[in-house]
Amino acid sequence: MVVTAPAKPGVPLLRAAGLVVRFPVRASLMGRSTAWVRAVDGVDLTLAAGETLGLVGESGCGKSTLGRTLLALRRADEGTVEIEGQRVFDLSPAALKGLRRRAQMVFQDPVASLDPRRTVGGSVRLGLDLHGIGTRREREAAVAATLRRVGLRPEHAERFPHEFSGGQRQRVGIARALILEPHLLICDEPVSALDVSVQAQILNLLKDIQAERGLGMVFISHNLAVVEHMADRVAVMYYGRIVELATRDALYASPQHPYTRALLAAVPSPDPEQRRDQAAPMGEPPDPARLPEGCRFRSRCPLAMPRCAAEEPPLLDLGNGHRAACWAANAA
Prior knowledge:
The chain has helices at residues 63-70, 93-99, 110-113, 120-131, 136-149, 166-178, 196-213, 224-230, 248-253, 258-265, 306-310, 327-331, and strands spanning 14-27, 33-47, 52-56, 78-83, 86-87, 103-106, 184-188, 216-221, 233-238, 241-247, 316-317, 323-324. The chain has 332 residues and is α/β, with parallel strands linked by helices. The protein has a domain at 110-181. The strands form two sheets. Strands 6-7-8-3-9-10-12-11 form an eight-stranded mixed beta sheet, sandwiched between helices. Strands 2-1-4-5 form a four-stranded antiparallel beta sheet. Helix 4 crosses helix 5, helix 4 (120-131) packs parallel to helix 6 (166-178) and helix 6 (166-178) runs parallel beside helix 7.
């Protein structure tokens, strides 16, 4: 069942510019906010049709908030998001509903994202019901076909989420996202709660479906080994900002930001003789509401210099599209 038009040629599938999302903290006795956490702080990114952008960083760096903001599940305080040329924050509720047929999300926790009172078939079919797509028989056929595609059986449609394993529930979540045949898929830590063997099955399923349908995908994860398997390009995020952006091969072969090097150093190696030349970040992470002046990573950085305290480094192009926000990298 084809329910969306092809992606527009020559137009980026996804473009974000200057995104800022703030959360109030430390409310006073009068109920006023006395500080703000900038969970997303001036993020720019683009995604082409059929491309996978990996978004990595430590927990709490703003990855999930950014993912939800890209789909307008949360409004940005500043900046714009365009999906296939449409500015999503300017759309009416009816137009935004139509956009959701072309952009979907796979959530981290399938237990929390699936309604326990609704059958699996009902959850997968819900998008078709809400958009009034097809007859009832056509919808049931589409549900059966989509369940088969994600490795489940059509008869599973009559069961409830609690009757499935974690990996099966995540397959249901993927089926629910795919039923509308979207062009863009935001995957928010889709395998972090699963066993390693099940992770591989889900990751390969996503890659196969992307190859079949030409999906553009933003793949959010704190696991750099998983991102290396999935991504064409990788954006490294630290406290709301993109600090490095490069192709997968360039970033893993020659990381330029000290934070990226520290993240890669923390990835276990199956080769006991392989040594890492960079230690994990030094010191405690800063208070998100009171980030250091200048470079926000400088309090944990072994390469920090006086300029790092005076100026925040921009995300500069180091050549071949490899960009890093680091004074040491930019000076090299």
